[in-house]
Amino acid sequence: MESAPRRRDDKPWTFLTNHARVLIAIARDPGLRVRDVAQDIGITERAAQLIITDLEEAGYLTRTRIGRRNRYTVNADRPFRHPAEADHDVQALIELFAGRGAARPSRGATGAPAPARSL
To answer: CB-based burial of residue 30 (10 Å sphere; 0-12 exposed, 13-18 middle, 19+ buried)?
Structure first.
């Protein structure tokens, strides 16, 4: 007896990379520990740490040490890395998955952008 052909949707791929997932998780909660990021996304702590380092080196995240913890600021005005999307910044992605206002600097009373805030 012949088995049914394998359906294309059985393959374990997704639209978002782990880098995008880490950035979104940190935009939602900038005080997350690496352990929490890893657990939320389903990757190892080592993988999460490497991705956070990648995002920092590329300018998407800024790390601030507060006591024994890290707090991150998302720099959402950075463009996507692939040339096909480089004319868009990651703000729209963050807003789509983390909600409006996440990682967006607030505007002061004069309408000028306020200093970057930690999320």
So the answer is: buried
Q: Where are the domains of the chain?
A: 16-98
H/E/C letters for each residue in 56-96? Answer: HHCCCEEEEEECCEEEEEECCCCECCCCCCCCCECHHHHHH
Quick check: 99 pLDDT over 90?
no
4 pLDDT tier (thresholds 50, 70, 90) = low
Rounded CA-CA distance 8/20 in Å is 24
Residue closest to 38 by CA, chosen among 48, 23, 29, 52: 48
**Residue 103: per-residue pLDDT:** 60
Q: For the whole model, what pTM was predicted?
A: 0.75
For the beta carbon of residue 68, count every other beta carbon within 10 angstroms.
Answer: 5
Q: Name the amino acid, one letter, at 53.
A: T
Domain 16-98 falls under CATH 1.10.10.10? yes
